[in-house]
Amino acid sequence: MFKLWPRSWLPALLLSILPAISMAQFGVGITVNLAPPEMPVYEQPPIPGDGYLWSPGYWYWSDDAQDYFWVPGTWVEAPQPGLLWTPGYWGSNGGAFVWNAGYWGPQVGFYGGVNYGFGYGGSGFAGGYWQGGHLFYNTAVVNVGTTHITNVYVKNVVVNNVTVNRVSYNGGNGGIQARPTPAEEAAARQPHIASTPAQLQHVQAARSNPALLSKANQGHPPIAATAKPGELTGKGVVAARGAPAHPVEPAHPAAATHPAPAAHPTPHPAAAEHAAPAERPAPAERPAPHAASHPAAAPPERPAAEERRAPPAEAAHPAAARPPAPARPAPSKPEEHPEPRG
How many Cβ atoms from other residues are within 10 Å of residue 87's Cβ? Predict the structure, then answer.
């Protein structure tokens, strides 16, 4: 368990125990020439316990798939008491889209004006705050559910807990035209902590799930949010509105699911009777015994067999087949009673 320190000690504590990570590590990371899809609309799963902060879902880029994939929103434990999460965002830069990574810090910095919902309405964080080493939650923004959480702070503010403005990037054509405030610029200069190991594992799990690619879900991921990082199955999974009921699997080759006609070369006998002459199987391809025992199944062989058994055409029709015999000359009549010679 972490000890609780007075709030006045927090800046000095952060400077002494947190790595001073340069701003370059939270700046330009990935550049893409394709705009990210709009933000999907989804509900927030209940918080799993005290000390968890909401990390909103976002579109990230996969070089392997050459496509955006959805990283589901999830509840994450803060790496240290007093730290808040600044989400990453896409910014347009002369037609290209540049990813600015998120980070942990004592104040929430600039995240492009993107309305991620659930307390991240485009500037700051309205989901709760730290006091005395505990998080006080704004239940008008976050879904506390039935989980017992001590010292839950409830503001008298009505805030919609779903994403309203669905634009997912800052600047450029069609992007959000927001600029950092002086307080957000000051927050960017403070010491930061990068994504926790649990958050990195969550991104890898999303990257390996083909159902989360934008080409597969058309901007409506079937896993839009989870109760804990990396847990993409189970009762804590929430789908986006309009998402398919089951994760989308990549298409299989047509030959694997629908064999081509060449896989069945032997046609049905009835089909052979109506086939074109060039498509009918030759009589020599069928065994003679089979044709003799099943004459009806081999109609092409019957004419040849009947031709061999039929009598000559002239015997069947003598009058039509045999021409009239030519007249023969009468033989000379021999002498009937030759006289003996002396």
Answer: 22
Q: How far from chain centre, in Å, is Cα 75?
A: 24
Query: Which range marks the domain in which residue 17 is found?
Result: 7-226
Q: How confident is the model at residue 69 (pLDDT cuts 50, 70, 90)?
A: very high
- pTM metric for this prediction: 0.63
**In this structure, is residue 165 part of a structural domain?**
yes
Q: Is residue 46 included in any domain, yes or no?
A: yes
> Is residue 169 within 8 Å of residue 114, measured between CB atoms?
yes
217 vs 39: CA distance, rounded Å: 13
DSSP string, 134-153: EEEE-TTTS--TT---TT--
Q: Which residues contact 275 (CB under 8 A, 6 or more apart)?
A: 267
Please write the tens of the pLDDT for every residue from 46-66. 998 888 999 999 999 999 999
User: Which residues contact residue 10 at a Cβ distance below 8 angstroms, ignoring those fewer than 6 apart?
Assistant: 82, 106
Residue 331 lies in a domain: no
Q: Is residue 314 part of a domain?
A: no
pLDDT tens profile 259-301: 444 544 444 544 444 444 444 445 555 544 444 444 444 444 5
